[in-house]
Amino acid sequence: MALQNVFRGVICPILTPFDPAGRVDLETLRQLVDFVIDRGIRVIMPGGTTGEGMLLDLAERKTVAETVMRQAQGRADVIVHTGCINTTDTLELTAHAQSIGAGGASVITPYFFSYDDDALFEHYTTVADALSDFPIALYCFPGNAKQLISTALFRRILDHSQNVVAIKLSDPNLIQLQEYIQAGGENFSTLCGVDALALPALSIGAVGQVSGNSNVFPEVFRDLYAAFAAGDLEKARHQQVLINRIRAVLKDDIVHFKAAMSYRSLPVGYSRPPMRQLNKKEMEDLQKGMQALGIK
Predict the structure, then answer these.
(1) Coil, strand or helix at 210
(2) How confident is the model at residue 4 (pLDDT cuts 50, 70, 90)?
(3) Engineered SS bond to 167: which of 24, 138, 157, 222, CB 3.0-4.6 Å?
(4) Residue 139 catalytic?
């Protein structure tokens, strides 16, 4: 039986709010879920890079995923990021994501250590085979996780695990992205994780964008995707230019995303140390940039 594939469109890797004591602020998280859904986001991903998932313990990651699932209430699909530094914890979180009714899981390559293709194959197929009726996305972020999922490894995983239905590339290498698109074939979802390349990625066959900036300006990404789907390339190009302006202000940075939410009438609190708050000069620059964008 074919698995439902919800890995398409604009996917918001939702921020994780913290209170001043460093605890996860679940009430603000619920408000943020409503904020992005009300502005057109139909797929939400808790626990990812933008959500500071690697700074949460396993219990916190489960609680965040459960909170997002309950708050979404069927208004948006939920994909849980479950990747960890080791296979055992990745399995635990992925099984949990399935148990709460998530639409799938995104699994980053194990980080810090360097692994060869055989080790990465064993990691991914162990997780996928243990949950063979649950959709899995590979998450390739060589800048942070050190490992590139080579095209050869990608094909090998696809040949082995039929529930691997998507891959996300957070790297500006459009040649690699296109290789994934070609190897994945029909009905496979190749996703772009670089907001500067949202439109170029769609133009070569990607089917979605995983956008940290969409926490702050979800409607801009919604409108780019809708314009491209409608064949309105002029509007899509306009939205990409606007996205590039947004990136210049927010710096593709989690702490800037959180600070910027105050200017969208939803303060989302703090980040978890060792991430720091913006200093006075950075806040002044952000305020000027947000005013110049003029997006209410």
Answers:
(1) strand
(2) confident
(3) 138
(4) yes
Is residue 23, in this structure, part of any structural domain at all?
A: yes
Tokens representing 247 are: 């990136």
- 193 three-class SS: coil
Strands of the chain, DSSP E? 9-13, 43-45, 77-81, 104-108, 136-140, 164-169, 189-192, 208-210
For residue 270, give the CATH number of its domain.
3.20.20.70
What is the 8-class DSSP label of residue 21? T
The pLDDT tens digits for 105-137 are: 999 999 999 999 999 999 999 999 999 999 999
Q: Is 111 a catalytic residue?
A: no
Domain span at residue 194 reads: 9-293
Domain membership flag for residue 270:
yes
| In a domain? residue 125 | yes
Q: What is the pTM of this model?
A: 0.96
Does the residue 135 lie in any domain?
Answer: yes
What CA–CA distance (Å, rounded) separates 155 from 85? Answer: 23
Burial of 113 (0-12, 13-18, 19+ CB in 10 A): exposed
Considering the candidates 124, 139, 180, 270, report the single residue annotated as catalytic: 139
Contact 155, 188 (CB under 8 A): no
- Given the residues 62, 124, 168, 180, select the one marked as catalytic: 168
The total number of structural domains that make up the chain: 1
pLDDT digits (tens, 9 = 90+) for 167-197: 999 999 999 999 999 999 999 999 999 999 9
